[in-house]
Write a structure and sequence with these properties.
Helix content: 25-40%
Order of helices and strands: EEEHEEHEHHHEHEHEE
CATH architecture: 3-Layer(aba) Sandwich
Largest sheet: 6 strands, mixed
CATH superfamily: P-loop containing nucleotide triphosphate hydrolases
Number of helices: 7
Oligomer: single chain
Number of strands: 10
Distance between the termini: 22 Å
Strand content: 25-35%
Strand order of the largest sheet: 6-7-8-3-9-10
Shape: globular
CATH class: Alpha Beta
Length: 218
């Protein structure tokens, strides 16, 4: 599903060159569940942004489902994101003045999908929120908000879910519930799941842990 080879990401900070990624190579198979971990500044968030086609590498090759996306234009990357990848963020990134149902519908607005409301409702039911579809984010707990975010990631039926610190804003009990939900979705749908975490206990849920240090896989 994913194959990157000798990926670098270099930032110019005045006269200083910062190599956030320094020749990363790895493969992630279709249907695999992998965790990317490492200390602050190790490059894990930069790698996640590149894997999610939110940023482009300075150099190197990125094959996503057989297509080289490393040199794609922004409009091409946007299409890949909408069709191939569902995102879950630590901050939930929900629109405060819209209902759970309307938040989940958002990705479908960009793909001219029919029956948007029905698909959004089904996604919310899949994460156990079928009775909260009219609630706004401020009427939901942190765990429920993260479930809405997961439903939004699932609604386009992408083959890949990328999650950036998905339990970072949750208490330990709710975090375990969210990881159990990921486990069930991975088991029943065969989705490729990749998440970034600094927590070894959360990383231990994955089939494989990819540890970064100073921009390289160790």
């Amino acid at each position: 599903m994913i194959e990157i080879e000798n990926i670098t990401k270099v930032y110019q900070m005045g006269e200083t060159e910062v190599r956030a990624l320094d020749g990363v190579s790895l493969k992630i198979d279709d249907g695999e569940w992998a965790a990317i971990t490492g200390p602050s500044g190790s490059g894990k968030s930069t790698l996640m942004a590149i894997l999610g086609c939110l940023d482009s590498p300075t150099s190197g090759s990125y094959q996503l489902d057989g297509t080289d996306v490393a040199k794609m234009r922004d409009d091409q990357l946007a299409k890949v994101r909408n069709q191939k990848i569902g995102f879950v963020f630590q901050q939930f990134n929900l629109l405060a003045r819209t209902s759970a149902l309307e938040n989940v519908e958002l990705p479908l607005l960009y793909s001219a999908t029919n029956h948007r409301r029905e698909k959004a409702k089904a996604a919310l039911e899949a994460v156990g929120l079928g009775d909260r579809i009219t609630h706004r984010p401020n009427e939901l707990s942190g765990g429920q908000q993260q479930r809405v975010a997961i439903a939004r990631a699932l609604v386009t039926e992408p083959p890949i879910i990328l999650a950036d610190e998905p339990t970072g804003n949750l208490d330990s009990k709710t975090g375990k519930e969210i990881m159990e939900l990921f486990r069930e979705l991975h088991r029943t749908r065969g989705i490729t799941v990749i998440f970034v975490t600094h927590d070894p206990a959360i990383a231990a849920n994955a089939q494989r842990v990819i540890h970064l240090m100073d921009g390289v896989v160790v």
